[in-house]
Amino acid sequence: MNAAPDSPRLTLVALSGVRVREAELAELGMSLPGLGPRGAAIAALPPLGVLTLAGMTPDDWAISLHEAAVVDDGLVQRIVREQPTLVGISALTASILEAYTLADALRREGVRVVLGGLHVTACPDEAMRHADAVVVGDGEPVWPQVLEDARRGALRPLYKPDMPFDMRAAPLPRYDLLGSAKRQRFTMQASRGCPFACDFCAASRLLGPFRRKPADRLREELRAITAIDPKPAIELADDNTFALGGPHDDLLDALGESNARWFTEADWRLGENPAVLERLAECGCVQVLVGLESLVHQHAGMGAKKTEMPRMLDALRAMQAAGVAVIGCYIVGSDGEDEASLDRLIEFLQHDPCADAQVTLQTPFPGTALRRRLEHEGRLLPDTNWSHCTLFDVTYQPDRMTPEALQAGYARVLISAFDESAHRRRSAIRRETWRNNPRMRA
Ligand code: SF4
Fold it and tell me: 332: helix, coil or strand?
């Protein structure tokens, strides 16, 4: 930190990395050629939430950033030595207990701590037991007040905006805090929220309605990123980028003017939207993650995304014909799942058309309709806690199998979907898809 000695000091901590509780599964994930590299890429994504809050922190504050894969005494001491006026910690559900451990340790040393993020928004009372203040919902509207109160030594226990953040006022994230090490990917947000309400999804519900960031803000962020890396790879930290159909020309123009290759998340209807589809590749889009969710089970709240698999697959083929590789995303363990349905998924994943796949276990995150239902039915496993909410560990009693059978069946699906031959097959699809993508040929 370079600032006057009497400047207020803000220390931001993002708990990074992918977590897996089940030791055998963690080992398996590392060893499968189709899985390890993607896990590493996700683990290394820049922490956009805290970079954004740093971007709206007044200039007279000195700011430091810690991206921490583990919480240990060394991390605590490094932070204490900075003598921060305030420490802001952001963590996902799987790492929230580590965030609480860190917050407790810092507070014992007399350091003030504010916690925020999705998990804290869903469980503010729990988080308040470990922090001087918690932020519920969008952080941007209340952040200036949090800083002002911290500076005066008068933090309130809870900060909650009266209304969702207006993306027209989006600050420029402080990408410069990431340091000089080369980043595989940068993160940037073009929209927040989703008009659907899939029962397993927390991200789309907890932070307000679907909103888009104006193109002038996006251009400013792209300029900041390309000043660091002239040909960056960018992951849009959106819930469902093209959710409302369009027009999306502003977004595509802004991204197309940059040299970026970009990745995002969308629902399958993108493949039935020719106005967007025909511009995607020329504007730098190289990959889209699409939630197909399940071969046989349809989730409550999927809205217009709910349809039959053949129609979704045609839409995915259209995306790939347009030069954009699709990561087909599946959730294992919904009610109705059994050994036979897992076998059908294994068979399907050996022949599906997608250039990549993502297969996770159904996970009842706090704040979701799924968790409320399983809780009501008494099906949450008693010997699990938030650290099991990794997307890779079973946390509830399935309706047609034992938890152990689901965990073992999930491992079977992973092996078949990401082993050497699956990896070769999908690599060939990617190469073929990207033949039609000018940004991948450049
Ligand atoms: S479509 Fe995606 S982002 Fe939207 S609610 Fe469903 S899972 Fe969440």
Answer: strand
* Residue with the two structure tokens 């959106």: 238
Greatest Cα pair distance, the chain, in angstroms, is 66
Dist CA 70 CA 438 (whole Å): 40
Question: Domain 9-159 maps to which CATH number in 3.90.76.10, 3.50.30.50, 3.30.390.30, 3.40.50.280?
Answer: 3.40.50.280
Mean pLDDT for all residues in the chain: 93
For residue 215, give the amino acid letter: A
pLDDT tens, 282-299?
Answer: 999 999 999 999 887 778
Q: Is the pLDDT of residue 18 over 90?
A: no
CA 256 to each of CA 62, 342, 347, 397: distance values in angstroms, whole numbers, following the listed order: 35, 41, 38, 47
Q: Choose one of 198, 211, 242, 306 to mutate for the ligand 1 pocket test, by most ligand atoms within 8 angstroms of C-beta.
A: 198
Ligand 1 atom with the shortest distance to the CA of 302: 6
Q: What is the pTM of this model?
A: 0.94
| Domain range summary for the chain, segments of one domain joined by + | 9-159, 185-441
Atom of ligand 1 nearest to the CA of 299: 6
Domain at 185-441: CATH code: 3.80.30.20
CA–CA separation, 68 and 77 (whole Å): 13
Could you give the angle at the alpha carbon of 391 between the alpha carbons of 179 and 395, nearest 5°? 135
Other Cβ atoms less than 10 A from the Cβ of 75: the count is 19
Task: Out of 10-19, 69-78, 215-224, 230-239, pick the least confident.
Answer: 10-19
